[in-house]
Structures are given as C-alpha cells and as structure tokens.
Design goal:
Number of strands: 12
Distance between the termini: 121 Å
Helix content: 10-25%
Length: 238
C-alpha cells in the first residue's frame, strides 16, 4: 500500500465574498422589511389614536349616564323649608331638573342632598353641571362661600354666574361638579300622574306637584355626537 501526503488547500481556496448584486438584493430585502415594519407601526399608532379619540367622546356621556342612573334610582320624596313654606323637592322643566337623593361620603359628607342639573353656557362653552346642597337647614341657608338654596322655579340661576363648574365648600356640604363637557343639549320630560288628572302621561315640566313622576326621560347631546334617550324609572311611592 502506498501512502501519499495530502497537502492542505491554500487559505481562501473554495471561499469567496458577496458579489455586488447579492449585496444590492440583500439591502433591498432589508429595506422592504423595514418599510413594512414602520408602516405597521404607523398604522397601529393611528388605530390607537382613533380608539382613544372615540373613547374620550363616549366616556363623558357614559359617566353622566352612570351618575344619573345611580341617583335617579334612589330619589327620595323629600321637602325643604323656604321662606317659611314647605316645598316638595322634585321639580323640573324641559331644561332643568332638581331632586333629592343620597350621596356617599366621597363628596365630603354622606347623606341626602338637593341635586340640581342645569345646562350652563359661558361664552362659546357649554356644560351639564350638577349643583348640590346637603339637605340641612344651615346649608340650605347658604354661607360666605356658597349661595343659599332657592326652589328651582324661583331661582333664575344668577347666583351661579360667577361660580366655577367644579368646586367644594363647607367641607363638601355644597359643591358643583362638571358632569359633561361640551354638552349642546339637555332635555328632560316626565311621565306620571299630575295633580288633578286621572291618567298618567308625558309632560314637558313637573312643577308644584305633590308626588314623583314614574319615569324621567333625558336627552343628552355633545358637540361631537348624540346619545340615545335615557329613560329612568323612579322608585315607587307608598
């Protein structure tokens, strides 16, 4: 048997670098992949912004709806004294509503409150605002920091002209809360049996009555969208 010495191949033999064409093709593929990735990120960013915009548009009416549902489902047939006269505190017209309902301690003091809903305009801005008084004689008489309570049909709203839309006074016993920004429409109607009638029906106002209506219907709209009518059933009365 004959043995032959095998010489190693010279370095670099059998190896070669990338050609110019291969580099151009690789760069083109990398550029295409990068373009697709950045396009996807940009589309995702736009989609996220659109979702946030829609969420912001519906969050306001949703919060207002939630608050109205909670408070109107707990309306109390209550009275208050004004100028020596006993006033039944559930009154409203087509654009304002006032009633008594409990609020929790997160507002400052837990208990029954006189709650007033009004659409207020200041310049080009409008908003649905909640004004509250603790149902207590000393609070209803007002104080240095806040106006006294007057029945809705007797109050022209001038007492609130200089008050901010969000405020707390008297350790939370009086306050104003912005429920819905850019509210362009707030309409209220009432279904029930008014004094002197025998059949319940829908009414545009509920004034000087001695009982609660059965239903309250509220229509809310903002500058950017409308909202389906909200119908609330009030607690049944004995």
């Amino acid at each position: 048997m004959t043995w032959r010495l095998m010489r190693p191949a010279p370095k670099g033999k059998g190896r070669r670098g990338f050609t110019l064409i291969e580099m151009v093709i690789a760069l083109a593929i990398i550029g295409l992949i990068s373009l697709l990735l950045f396009s996807g990120l940009r589309l995702g960013s736009r989609s996220w912004e659109a979702v946030e915009k829609v969420s912001d548009q519906i969050s306001g009416p949703r919060l207002a709806d939630g608050f109205l549902t909670r408070t109107l489902s707990q309306v109390r047939p209550a009275s208050a004294i004004f100028d020596g006269e006993t006033i039944f505190v559930f009154v409203g017209d087509a654009e304002r509503l006032e009633f008594v309902a409990p609020l929790s301690e997160h507002v400052g003091i837990s208990g029954l409150y006189v709650l007033r809903l009004t659409l207020e305009e200041r310049g080009s801005e409008s908003a649905l605002v909640l004004t509250r008084w603790l149902l207590h004689s000393e609070v209803l008489e007002g104080g240095d920091e806040f106006p006294p309570w007057e029945p809705l049909e007797k109050d022209g709203g001038k007492a609130f002209a200089d008050l901010p839309w969000n405020m707390d006074a008297a350790d939370g016993a009086f306050g104003r809360t912005l429920l819905l920004e850019e509210a362009s429409r707030f309409e209220v109607s009432y279904h029930g049996l008014v004094d002197g009638e025998t059949d319940p029906a829908w009414h545009e106002e509920w004034l000087e009555q001695t009982r609660l209506p059965e239903l309250v219907r509220i229509r809310l709209e903002t500058n950017s969208q409308s909202w389906p009518d909200l119908v609330f059933a009030l607690p049944s009365q004995p």
